[in-house]
Amino acid sequence: MTLDVEFVRSQFPAFAEPSLQGQAFFENAGGSYTCAPVIARLERYYRQRKVQPYAPYEASRLAGDEMDEARARLAAMLGVASDEVSFGPSTTANTYVLAQAVRKWMEPGDAIIVTNQDHEANSGPWRRLADEGFEVREWKVDPDTGMLDPEDLETLLDERVRLVCFPHCSNVIGAINPVVAITALAHAAGAFVCVDGVSYAPHGLPDVGGMGPDIYLFSAYKTYGPHQGIMVIRRELGNLLPNQAHYFNADTLYKRFTPAGPDHAQVAASAGMADYVDDLAAHHGITGEASARAVGVHDLMRAHEVTLLQPLLDYLKDRNSVRLLGPDRAEDRAPTVAVALNRPGEEAATELAKHGIMAGGGDFYAVRPLTAMGIDPAQGVLRLSFVHYTSRDEIDKLLTALDDIL
């Protein structure tokens, strides 16, 4: 089975938008196009349901039902319980709130492990725990490859470590880290696990329940939805951490780590993400429970991306004028491809824009991994990122444009 890209693109109004015609979008790691079901639900909510939810009158009942639907359906696709899924304003904000909870939970002498492969959102808040007297240990990348070696993690683990934080996939290295194996190592040492999935989830919703981490974070606006941060917090850890919300919400797991009230409309619209996955599953004949449908769609997306990614990697790895960050095998990475040039990445992105290529240049809040690899963050990298709705013609257009600017 192969992904029907024509059908996929028909589900995204951006591809029919006149102002975007002739433009190939290669900065999806910064935020994806929004799918039609999300837009429809968001518009309907603002037109018909823009009232305080969960009251007895009809518009309010429907508003609350749609919010609950989003949580329940996404949880089923992620393989976790409905109350283990929380919404917040962004993944950065969600991580900060979680770090405050962990700060109150940890005891003198406790340690936490972070990496220097992360986006700063899953690094900075945890590192600040050092200001509270806790030990912060750094799991370092290989400076040549940017990769994390699980054997290096083993040397950092002991009975004092309470939490291990790492990315499912770096937003500049692109390598897919072995979440199941790393989680097993941490759990065997008695530590909990927090995975930043922001750069992986756009390439197919992960089976969080099957992988086993205690916290999994990702962003809805990068997974074809509204601007929300979605966090899975498994019940065992969620009930151990102190409540960060209003005291009367302490007994509701999905409210414990949302200090402010949720954005009702955007939470409700997030059900459109589940609609989209189900639409893809139905179109491609994928059946079964929600988690099975999500896995099937994930595999379709990944197979399409791998096919398109390898020619780009082959093109870049053979050029002496660029340094390709991360693996050069498409199977080992996400289609988030950063290259260091002999000039600022933003300058190269500006030149690509003249060729109808929408890409990005800079440090992408990944200052630590770039510095670890000897790349000046001020110069940054050129980042070319795509997802399953990218077409082969767009890849060809990108390669032609790269020929002109490199």
UniProtKB/TrEMBL annotation:
Enzyme class: transferase
Keywords linked to the UniProt accession: Pyridoxal phosphate, Transferase
Assigned EC number: 2.8.1.7
Cell membrane among keywords: no
Coiled-coil segments: none
Gene3D superfamilies: Aspartate Aminotransferase, domain 1 (3.90.1150.10), Type I PLP-dependent aspartate aminotransferase-like (Major domain) (3.40.640.10)
Record InterPro entries: Aminotrans_V_dom (IPR000192), PyrdxlP-dep_Trfase (IPR015424), PyrdxlP-dep_Trfase_major (IPR015421), PyrdxlP-dep_Trfase_small (IPR015422)
GO molecular function: cysteine desulfurase activity
Record keyword Transferase present: yes
Listed transmembrane segments: none
Domain Aminotransferase class V: 25-398
PANTHER family: CYSTEINE DESULFURASE (PTHR43586), PYRIDOXAL PHOSPHATE (PLP)-DEPENDENT ASPARTATE AMINOTRANSFERASE SUPERFAMILY (PTHR43586:SF21)
Name the record gives this protein: Cysteine desulfurase
